[in-house]
Amino acid sequence: MRIQRLDHLVLTVADLDRTVDFYTRGLGMQAETFDGDRRALRFGGQKINLHQAGHEAEPKAASPTPGSGDLCLVTDLPLTQVQEHLRGAGIAVELGPVRRTGAMGPMTSLYVRDPDDNLIEIASYRQAPATG
């Protein structure tokens, strides 16, 4: 048995339209509707499926709750450019830039909150700041 990559994950959200707006306008993802009326967000080779709280698709997590997510998303842009974009979209940076260690080594991260207060880390492997 060997896992290669993450294909998709699911976020349970209070307001689908508000969530789609945040991730498309704020983070540049692409909205998608599939299986009739299900909603998702695409980026790179992955996607985030969205479940409306109280109306989750089956099977689902044991305790689906808006605001319980903590995700790290990787960008190939300099974080100064990301910060400018976020500012223009009215999205506050909660923390960063700060040095972190990701799956592929040292990276630099910014942290924001989505409409459900999920913690969204936006990371770049371009240049990690010096520690100290």
Summarize the structure in words.
- This protein has one domain: 2,3-Dihydroxybiphenyl 1,2-Dioxygenase, domain 1 (Roll), CATH 3.10.180.10.
- Helix content is 16%, strand content 40%.
- It contains two helices and eight strands.
- The strands form two sheets. The protein has a four-stranded mixed sheet with strand order 1-4-3-2, with helices on one face. The chain has a four-stranded mixed sheet with strand order 5-8-7-6, with no helix packed on it.
- It is globular, with a radius of gyration of 15 Å.
- This is Glyoxalase.
- InterPro entries: Glyas_Bleomycin-R_OHBP_Dase, Glyas_Fos-R_dOase_dom, GlyoxalaseI/FosfomycinResist, VOC_core.
Widest β-sheet, arrangement of strands: 1-4-3-2
Overall geometric form: globular
Overall structural domain count: 1
Task: Return Rg in Å.
Answer: 15 Å
Mind describing the biggest β-sheet?
Answer: 4 strands, mixed
Give the termini distance in whole angstroms: 41 Å
Helix fraction, binned, reads 10-25%
Mean pLDDT: 94
Strand content: 35-45%
- Spans of at least 5 consecutive residues whose pLDDT stays below 50 are none
How many β strands by DSSP?
A: 8
SS summary, helix count: 2
Query: What would CATH call the architecture?
Result: Roll
